[in-house]
């Protein structure tokens, strides 16, 4: 049985970060415990902030948020900012 999940969408930049944050928090509040980043092709550092905020929202609910298919370039950006250990992924590439 798979965990309730949602997708990031193709773009997660400063332009749509606030809307993406709200949409993800709503999914988490509805019970989602997994986010699929596979569709994500365009992103900036805002994506990292949103992912960490989603994880905080899940922790507030007493659960965790598993991050699937984090693009290698986004993981590299997280490492550059020194926040890679704050992003909980199912499988680190």
Protein model, in words:
This protein has one domain (5-86): Transcription Regulator spoIIAA. 42% of the residues lie in helices and 14% in strands. The chain is built from three helices and five strands, in the order ββαββαβα. It has helices at 17-29, 45-60, 72-81, and strands spanning 5-7, 11-12, 34-36, 42-43, 66-68. Strands 1-3-5 form a three-stranded parallel beta sheet, with no helix packed on it. Strands 2-4 form a two-stranded parallel ribbon. Helix 1 (17-29) packs parallel to helix 2. The model has no long low-confidence stretch (mean pLDDT 92).
Indicate the topology.
Elements: E1 5-7, E2 11-12, H1 17-29, E3 34-36, E4 42-43, H2 45-60, E5 66-68, H3 72-81
Parallel strand pairs: 1-3, 2-4, 3-5
